[in-house]
Write a structure and sequence with these properties.
The chain has 150 residues and is mainly α. It has helices at residues 10-35, 39-65, 70-85, 93-112, 116-126, 128-138, 143-149. The termini are far apart.
Length: 150
């Protein structure tokens, strides 16, 4: 018996991917700078781990669910909150530039390499109400036409 995964709305899916990005961003930042106080880990965080996470998370989201602005808005807001929350001296503007540039490259590349079945299922899930209304309009028959058939 195979389990069929029902797609969730794209704004909820973006929240899941945002949580994955936040775990990487805030978790590794706290680990490298606060707990271990390591300069090498801080450099690895800012130069390798954060750009990779900022590329991979939007890439995976866009590849699965097409081009949606939910995750981009969530990531930008979360990056601003992290930037302000950790203090302007802790996270340099490179943090913002890295996330924005790598994130947009991730969105663009993911949009090119779509998984068509998953993307169409996500679009159908997002537009289920509109599709149902269009189907009802398509199948509409006037009352007079229905009486003539009897």
């Amino acid at each position: 018996m195979r389990l069929v995964k029902k797609p969730i709305k794209s704004f909820l899916l973006a929240g899941v991917y945002l949580a994955a990005w936040l775990i990487i961003a805030a978790g590794f930042k706290l680990l490298a700078d606060e707990l271990l106080n390591s300069t090498i880990l801080h450099i690895a965080f800012t130069m390798m781990i954060m750009p990779a996470a900022a590329f991979v998370i939007p890439f995976m989201y866009t590849r699965r669910g097409c081009q949606r602005l939910w995750l981009a808005g969530y990531l930008l807001a979360a990056a601003l909150v992290l930037y302000i929350g950790f203090g302007y001296n802790e996270l340099q503007p490179d943090f913002m530039a890295t996330n924005i540039i790598c994130g947009f490259f991730g969105f663009g590349t993911g949009g090119i390499i779509l998984k068509e079945p998953q993307a169409s299922a996500q679009i159908a899930c997002d537009n289920a109400k509109k599709i149902a209304e269009e189907q009802a309009e398509k199948n509409y028959q006037p009352i007079t036409a229905a009486k003539k058939k009897r």
